[in-house]
From TrEMBL:
Repeat in keyword set: no
InterPro entries: 6-blade_b-propeller_TolB-like (IPR011042), AB_hydrolase_fold (IPR029058), Peptidase_S9_cat (IPR001375), WD40 (IPR011659)
Keywords from the UniProt entry: Hydrolase, Protease, Serine protease
Protein name, per record: Peptidase S9 prolyl oligopeptidase catalytic domain-containing protein
SUPFAM superfamilies (UniProt xref): alpha/beta-Hydrolases (SSF53474), DPP6 N-terminal domain-like (SSF82171)
Species annotation: Amycolatopsis bullii
A UniProt-annotated Pfam family: Peptidase_S9
Tree of life domain: Bacteria
Domain Peptidase S9 prolyl oligopeptidase catalytic: start-end pairs: 445-632
Length: 633
């Protein structure tokens, strides 16, 4: 039997963005390690027969960040973004399906952000800044008097005939534009006119006769002001049609077709408020296609045959569903125990990245209704894993809850009670699914290997149980969701699984808030971990990237800083120095408030909201496990 090491955790390869070829015969995907070893990330492209008859082989290997593979219409070429010419500056490349030397198609000075292939055309649409664009210096913010800075959708400010409205803020970062690359001449020219708006994403209609384009009013989220716009563009003339104000946080533009013609869908935040989870909308009229469902859409995807597919979070599991235009509902095609991500379709097959309780992320392919075949051998064989149990229990008020329990390897409930670490997911609109729990932060198996039992609760406010479940925490974080957490712990103590005198709690982002909140409300926990956690909601609303969203979640009365004088539990504070989502000032507040009380404060330089550097992830793993193992011994 092998031993689980931190190196094995952060060096594990994770596949992303699988794409099925239009003829359904091949799958190409990118793969990269969990941790970044050098200054720049490295990822490679892999290709495999869709039926799994041969193992994947690498395409055009290089010490570079190769990502976002796409197929040409005839499945002869794989297009991709790569910084192999200049590290840190991605350009568009293509390579033959059989392999060989890639062809570089762009030499755009600031690099290419995104691209899409126009069907049946010798052209590619690029999303990139202007070639001579540079960040504003000095940085200037201009407030337009016509806009209400506090409104979710302020009144637009006219920008002249034919131009969409823009936000009351001028952008700091250079805006991305839409460009058309002629593959025959390699000439690049502008496509469409969006004024000063920032192009975020685009999707080509499968018949090649239209582009859906998502724009923001600014290129940066300062803080949380990026009023979105949705447009249709003629790829031949650049003529633009606006589709009105979309739902909050629109993304993942997806085309589908019925008897009436082509339609555009996207994922956005469920109305009417900012808190309530995601829904899938039809762009014209912004009709909610998932209203009333007790499950939550993760991502829509084109099927390759014109129908609309989507992944849905359903409790601890994930389903694949198809939209039925006749009934206006999504019908389940297949259910997977665990997680599915990165859905794509083509030639009667789909591809996803799947993970179960006993198997790490791997690309799977097959018909939409299953079965799906894993492409390639499983990773990390020969290491003993802790048994992962599915939990289901009622909240104090009767609401149905679920979660996971991981026991130390080779142990059963009969060997308890164990020291118990409760790990709280972020969001709060997120979840613990019944997948392989091994990563630099989602580290349930890593802690279990040290003899700790790990509880992963899905409290109210999270993903997988519909709109009302998610919306219930609006303005009340730390309320019923914290009671949900304690209820689960109490049940494990009563069952003899957890030792009530050896309880720890930890979390990142919103989970970091819950951990900090927990130790202001009770002294039951003997150790706490606060990673990138929210300590002061009003301060976060003023300084973070999601100002309106954060204001809707909490205020001073449910901020840990308000009750920090009560904390008696030793706290490990971990934070990225360059975090713009939850700025470092949040961690500094907690550190200062704790004063001489037992705690450690660790700042990771160059890191944002998530740790990327391999050495930092290894430090996080060792520091976290040592903290809980020592204090819960």
């Amino acid at each position: 039997m092998g031993e689980l090491t931190a190196d094995a955790v952060v060096d594990r390869m994770v596949p992303q963005a699988p794409r099925v070829s239009p003829d359904g015969r091949w799958v190409v995907y990118a793969s990269s390690p969990v941790g970044r070893a050098g200054e720049y990330p490295e990822s490679g492209l892999w290709i495999a027969p869709a039926d799994g008859r041969e193992p994947p082989r690498q395409l055009a290997a290089a010490a570079a960040d190769d990502r976002e593979p796409r197929w040409s219409a005839d499945a002869a070429w794989v297009y991709f973004l790569s910084d192999r010419a200049e590290r840190g500056t991605p350009q568009l490349h293509r390579v033959r399906r059989e392999g060989g030397e890639p062809e570089q198609l762009t030499d755009w000075r600031p690099g290419i952000h995104e691209y899409l292939l126009l069907p049946d055309s010798e052209a590619v649409v690029l999303v990139a800044p202007e070639e001579n664009a540079a960040p504003a210096d000095p940085r200037v913010r201009v407030v337009r008097a016509a806009a209400d800075a506090g409104a979710a959708h302020p009144e637009p400010v006219p920008t002249g005939a034919g131009h969409p409205a823009f936000s009351p803020w001028d952008s700091v970062a250079p805006a991305h534009r839409l460009w058309r690359l002629d593959l025959r001449t390699h000439a690049v020219g502008p496509l469409g006119d969006f004024g000063r708006r920032h192009v975020v994403e685009a999707a080509a209609r499968p018949d090649g006769r239209g582009l859906a384009v998502l724009t923001w009013s600014v290129a940066d989220r300062e803080p949380g002001r990026f009023d979105p716009g949705l447009h249709l563009v003629d790829p031949a003339t650049g003529a633009r049609q606006d589709l009105g104000v979309p739902a909050h946080e629109p993304e993942q533009l997806t085309w589908w077709r019925d008897e009436a013609g082509w339609h555009l869908a996207y994922r956005g935040v469920t109305p009417p408020g900012l808190i309530g989870g995601n829904a899938i909308f039809e762009a014209r009229g912004h009709r909610n296609l998932t209203g009333g469902m007790s499950v939550c859409p993760i991502e829509p995807a084109e099927s390759g045959d014109g129908s609309l597919l989507a992944l849905f979070a359903e409790g601890l599991d994930t389903t694949i569903r198809r939209f039925d235009p006749a009934t206006g509902a999504f019908t389940e095609l297949a259910r997977a125990t665990g997680s599915l991500l990165g859905l794509s379709g083509g030639g009667g097959r789909i591809a996803v990245v799947a993970s179960t309780a006993t198997e790490p992320d791997a690309v799977h392919c097959g018909p939409p209704g299953g079965p799906l075949t894993r492409l390639g051998a499983p990773q990390l064989r020969g290491i003993p894993w802790g048994v992962q149990e599915r939990l289901s229990y009622p909240a104090e008020d009767g609401l149905d809850l679920d979660g996971l329990l991981i026991l130390p390897p080779g142990r059963t409930r009969a060997d308890g009670p164990f020291p118990l670490v409760t790990l709280v997911h972020g969001g709060p609109y997120d979840r613990w699914e019944d997948r392989f729990q091994l990563g630099w932060f989602r580290c349930g198996q890593w802690l279990a290997a040290a003899g700790l039992a790990v509880f992963l609760p899905n409290m109210r406010g999270g993903l997988g149980h519909g709109h009302a479940f998610a919306a219930s925490v609006a303005g009340d974080v730390g309320g019923a969701e914290f009671t949900d957490l304690l209820t689960g712990i109490d049940l494990l103590v009563e069952a003899g699984v957890a030792d009530g005198e050896r309880l720890g709690i930890g979390g990142g982002s919103h989970g970091g808030f819950v951990a900090a909140w927990a130790v202001t409300q009770t002294d039951r926990f003997k150790a706490a971990l606060v990673n990138a956690g929210v300590i002061d909601w009003p301060l976060l609303a003023a300084t973070g990237e999601h100002g309106r969203y954060d204001r809707a979640l909490g205020g001073r009365e449910n901020s840990p800083i308000t009750y920090a004088d009560r904390i008696a539990t030793p706290v490990l504070i971990l934070h990225g120095e360059d975090d713009t989502n939850v700025p470092l000032s949040q961690a500094e507040l907690l550190h200062t408030a704790l004063g001489d009380r037992p705690h450690e404060f660790v700042v990771y330089p160059r890191e944002g909201h998530s740790l990327r550097e391999r050495a930092h992830q290894i430090d996080f793993l060792h520091r976290t496990r040592d903290w809980f193992a020592q204090l819960l011994a």
